[in-house]
Design goal:
Blueprint: H1 10-27, H2 50-69, H3 78-110, H4 119-127, H5 138-155, H6 161-178, H7 189-197, H8 217-235, H9 240-261, H10 274-297, H11 305-311, H12 314-330, E1 332-334, E2 340-342, H13 343-356, H14 358-382
Antiparallel strand pairs: 1-2
Helix pairs in contact: 1-2, 1-10, 1-11, 1-12, 1-14, 2-5, 2-8, 2-10, 3-4, 3-5, 3-12, 5-8, 6-8, 8-9, 8-10, 9-10, 11-14, 12-14, 13-14
Protein name: Membrane protein
Transmembrane segments: 52-69, 90-112, 132-156, 163-184, 213-235, 247-264, 276-295, 315-333, 362-381
Pfam family, one: HGSNAT_cat
């Protein structure tokens, strides 16, 4: 934990905050049966607004990595490497802890039917159940991509990084075409590798595809490296209008290039296709340029204070929302005739749905969770408390 950092880029904090608030919104509807189309992921190929939030955050992480490594002058040292490895391990461990906490809660309720179990036995079996623990996920992917990007940044000359990005995306494209990588089933080479290494019981169940799988982490690393290069562009220019123009031009070129190439290589989040990297990085860069213009050039800042509370403590806010969601889904309350319902189910099913309707109530539930997290984030923000990992 630390207090006010030396200097923060407000537009970057705001974009980061928008993505975190967006992640919380799309991940926590009142009911998955009633989700507005723009708030759902594309089933396979294609792109929805929801598909943008995670890659936008990855792009921003690349920029932040550039900023944070400047103090090491991008030179390898044992202390820099230790810090990178430690941070990578901590973020990965937090992701595993969230997955374990959710699995333990679900196991606890599943064991409720075994009346002969004592409280201690039931608790022990719940917390020691790792049979279906998902190993990879959002936080582990962030960890791996951050670690790889940061180590590359202090060991590889920066002029070579664009070539490394291009080679990674080109090689991954070849792998997808040769390995049936666009098939939405278990014959996909990505699924084959994940099942062989992780095991089916430790993967997300989506037609055999793990959206944050091992091989698809390679283009995700390239994704963060694109953000890193844009960070160099952003920090290396002093004139604000020049920053905005360069970011916008680079972003537009990437987005247009990704869209044109998608006719041969589909945009697909679940396999993190190269066109997905180009398109979403381009859109993120262009949006950041727009925010620089609105906030830094035009000086319109009042509207963005809500998102700043999320943006200055992004990982803490994401973890907080995940813990809230698990608790809401597992705390049981009586619901007539000896039955029980989760607290979240009660809030949506007995309060919001009757009051607002199925789809609006489902969205309102997600927004309530966003606002609940914001209340805590705002207190930290007002006290200039920034929780660092």
């Amino acid at each position: 934990m630390s207090h006010q950092p030396t200097q923060r880029l407000l537009a970057l904090d705001i974009l980061r905050g928008i993505t975190i608030a967006g992640m919380i919104t799309v991940n926590n509807p009142g009911s998955w049966l009633y989700v507005y189309a723009p708030l759902g992921h594309a089933e396979w190929n294609g792109l929805t607004p929801t598909d943008l939030v995670f890659p936008f955050f990855m792009f921003i992480m690349g920029i932040s990595t550039y900023i944070s490594l400047r103090k090491y002058q991008f030179t390898y040292s044992a202390s820099a490497a230790r810090k990178i490895v430690r941070r990578t391990a901590v973020i990965f461990a937090i992701g595993l802890a969230i997955a374990w906490f959710g699995l333990s809660c679900r196991t606890w309720h599943a064991l409720a039917e075994e009346a002969d179990l004592s409280f201690a036995s039931r608790l022990w079996r719940a917390v020691t159940n790792f049979d279906h623990l998902r190993i990879l996920g959002v936080m582990p992917r962030l960890a791996l991509c951050y670690g790889a990007t940061a180590l590359i940044a202090i060991t590889v000359p920066h002029r070579r990084i664009p070539f490394l990005i291009g080679a990674t995306l080109a090689g991954y494209t070849v792998l997808l075409f040769l390995g049936n990588g666009f098939a939405y089933d278990e014959t996909n080479v990505l699924s084959v590798v994940d099942r062989a290494v992780l095991g089916p019981d430790h993967m997300y169940k989506d037609n055999g595809i793990e959206p944050e799988g091992l091989l698809s982490t390679l283009p995700a690393i390239a994704h963060v490296l694109v953000g890193f290069c844009c960070g160099a562009l952003l920090i290396g220019v002093t004139d604000v209008k020049d920053k905005m123009l360069r970011l916008f031009l680079v972003g537009t070129a990437m987005a247009l290039g990704g869209w044109l190439l998608s006719y041969g290589c589909p945009i697909n989040k679940k396999i993190w296709s190269p066109t997905f990297v180009l398109t979403t990085c381009g859109m993120a860069a262009s949006l950041l340029a727009l925010l620089v213009w609105i906030i830094d050039v035009r000086g319109h800042r009042r509207w963005c204070r809500f998102f700043e509370s999320f943006g200055v403590n992004p990982l803490f806010m994401y973890v907080l929302a995940a813990v809230f969601a698990i608790l809401l889904g597992n705390i049981r309350i009586p619901h007539g005739d000896g039955e029980s319902v989760s607290l979240g189910g009660y809030i949506y099913g007995d309060v919001l749905r009757p009051l607002l309707g199925e789809y609006p109530g489902s969205l309102a539930y997600a927004l309530l969770l966003v606002c609940s997290c914001w209340c805590i984030g705002y207190v930290l923000y007002k006290r200039n408390i920034y929780i660092k990992i």
